[in-house]
Every structure is written in C-alpha cells, then in structure tokens.
Design brief:
The chain has a 6-stranded mixed sheet with strand order 2-1-6-5-4-3. The chain is an alpha+beta fold. The longest helix is centred in the first third of the chain and has 14 residues, at about 20-35. About 30% of the residues lie in helices and about 30% in strands. It has 6 helices and 6 strands. It has a single domain (about 1-180), classed as Nuclear Transport Factor 2, Chain: A. The chain has helices at about 1-15, 20-35, 35-40, 60-75, 145-155, 170-175, and strands at about 45-50, 55-60, 80-90, 95-105, 120-135, 135-145.
Length: about 190
C-alpha cells in the first residue's frame, strides 16, 4: 500500500498520466469482442500474469499466458458472453472493476468450469477484476467470482442446506431492495430485539 501511495504522489506531481480505464477497456475488447490473442498480449508487459482465483487458472510469463489465452480463454468463451460494468475504481497503478459476467454454458469453459461439459444453462455472476499496471501496460489480473454460484446455476451443486445461492447473487447486486439475509435461518429470531 505504501508503494501505491508513493506512485500516486509522484504521478500526481510529475506524471506520466495514463488512462488506465481506457487501457483496461481495450484489453477486454480484444479478449471478448474481437477475440484477438496477439492484440490482447500487446496490451501487457513482457512478463505478465493472470490468476483466476477460484479455479487457479491463468498463466505466469508471456509464453504461458499466451498459451492460456490462445487455447483456454479467448476462444473458449461462449458466443453470448457479456460483461456488464457496475463500478470501477481507478488508482495510481491499478483498476478495480466490478461487473456482471453473463453467458450461456454452450461450450466447455476451461478457465471457469474446467472439465465440465456444456449444460446449456444461463449463468449470471458478480465478478471482480483487480488489474495492476506498469506504465501503460497491464502487469497482472486477479479475477474473483463465487464459484458456488456458478455451480448452482449450471445444476452441478444443490444449494439445499448450504449457505450458497445461484443467480440470486446477481439479482441482489442489481437490486438492493431485494431481501437480505435469506440464507440465515436465525435471521427471524433477531427481529424486535
């Protein structure tokens, strides 16, 4: 955190000033819209890394990450994949993006559901990306989502008796008026106390 604060102070005073939001948007365009691996890699430093935290997929270093993007990510997302932006925080050297990640499970998605054959089910999940930059290039991505919610939505995890939810997590994110605490059996016991 001290490094972040120092970079922020130096950049505010001396620059350079990079548009991290635009750089991240361009990277995502290459990944999901044009599906261009070489263009995607060109937005990154010489030795980048990506870590999809729930499934430990991604790559470290140019060769491994390009292999991952080419054979297990960029061309492995369902055609109807959409990213719906919800919030973005831009720091001195990173972007934190909150979005809904939506798709129909019509193909095997190595990075999110490795080894799980297509179910044809619709999935909508909150997803967080923490994207670090070095200069005007992406250095790393840490991507987080609730894997239990994905598994519930594709019918691979029965939520009965478990503190997990399916598409309700996405619905609640979009509509704060939906009820909270629905998984807490003891919630009703605290009413009026």
């Amino acid at each position: 955190m001290a490094h972040q604060r120092s970079i922020a102070a130096y950049r505010a005073e001396m620059g350079p000033h990079y548009d991290f939001s635009a750089l991240w948007d361009k990277h995502c365009e290459y990944e999901f819209a044009t599906r261009d691996v070489d263009a995607t890699m060109a937005t990154m430093v010489a030795e980048p890394y990506v870590n999809h935290i729930p499934t430990m997929t991604g790559g470290v270093g140019y060769r491994q990450l390009k292999r991952f993007y080419q054979h297990h990510f960029v061309h492995s997302n369902p055609p109807d994949t959409t990213l719906i932006p919800l919030s973005r925080t831009i720091g001195a050297s990173q972007v934190v993006d909150e979005m809904l990640f939506c798709f129909t499970h019509t193909c095997e998605i190595d990075w999110m559901l490795p080894g799980v054959p297509p179910t044809g089910k619709r999935v909508e999940i909150p997803l967080i990306a923490i994207v670090k930059f070095r200069g005007d290039k992406l250095y790393h991505e840490h991507i987080y989502w609730d894997q239990a919610s994905v598994l519930v939505q594709i019918g691979k995890l029965d939520p009965t008796g478990l503190p997990v939810a399916g598409v309700e997590t996405a619905r609640k994110l979009l509509d704060e008026t939906l009820p909270s605490n629905t998984l807490m059996a003891r919630w009703s016991q605290s009413e009026g106390k």
